[in-house]
Design brief:
By secondary structure, this protein is an alpha+beta fold. It contains one helix and six strands, in the order αββββββ. The protein has a six-stranded mixed beta sheet with strand order 5-3-2-1-4-6, with no helix packed on it.
Length: about 110
């Protein structure tokens, strides 16, 4: 009986370990939107394409644009923002840990 229990425990451990997700996704959270207001080092962005985030189209967020390689932008420009997925729970929501900001020429499609 001890031998059977040991084998059963070993099989269960192997099953648990094999079911662990070892696929590290390197895709960052991203969204696109229209610049509503420009501040020093940040901007207010109206989401036009929620990307892979929980934002809804039309929602407004404050984006940290004090990142290396951030283009010069103005009110009315469209930006694509990649970030760590963390959003500060405030009004408006704040995206602080930004990896990249890209200026887009075309109005992103609205997605819900």
């Amino acid at each position: 009986m001890k031998k059977f229990s040991t084998i059963l425990l070993a099989v269960m451990c192997l099953f648990i370990l094999s079911s662990c997700d070892t696929n590290d996704s390197t895709e960052n959270a991203y969204l696109s939107g229209k610049v509503l207001t420009v501040y020093e080092g940040s901007c207010l962005l109206e989401v036009t394409d929620k990307g892979n985030t929980g934002f809804a189209s039309g929602e407004v967020a404050l984006i940290n644009t004090n990142v290396e390689g951030c283009p010069i932008y103005a009110v009315g420009d469209f930006l694509k923002v990649e970030f760590d997925g963390t959003v500060a729970e405030s009004y408006p929501p704040q995206i602080l840990t930004v990896f990249s900001v890209e200026k887009t020429d075309v109005t992103p499609s609205r997605s819900e």
